[in-house]
């Protein structure tokens, strides 16, 4: 089940993600099962992740980012150009404490 964030939580997470480097990058092969597995592992460890998405067409990038968030059960916090920020709370070790709605 995807994560639903309030406006205040989204603002908080955007601030947290500002200094992060992109940990993953989607190349020409697109979204593969191996990429989704890697994204799951990174989200479980970090909770908040920047992903770079290759592609010239804006609609194709948007579709890829939406599919990525759906498959990872993550919330799309922010999308700027080729970079998307995804958030999913860890099942084992929660590190980020979200503000109340």
UniProtKB/TrEMBL annotation:
Keywords: RNA-binding. Residues 3-99 form the CRM domain. The keyword Cell membrane does not apply. It comes from the Bacteria. The keyword RNA-binding applies. NCBIfam families: RNA_bind_YhbY. This is Ribosome assembly RNA-binding protein YhbY.
């Amino acid at each position: 089940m995807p994560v639903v964030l309030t406006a205040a939580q989204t603002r908080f997470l955007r601030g947290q993600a500002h200094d992060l480097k992109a940990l993953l990058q989607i190349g020409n092969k697109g979204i593969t099962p191996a990429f989704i597995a890697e994204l799951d592992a990174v989200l479980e460890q970090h909770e908040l992740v920047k992903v770079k998405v290759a592609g010239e067409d804006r609609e194709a990038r948007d579709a890829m980012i939406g599919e990525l968030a759906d498959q990872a059960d993550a919330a799309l916090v922010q999308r700027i150009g080729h970079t998307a920020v995804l958030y999913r709370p860890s099942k084992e070790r929660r590190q980020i404490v979200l503000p109340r709605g």
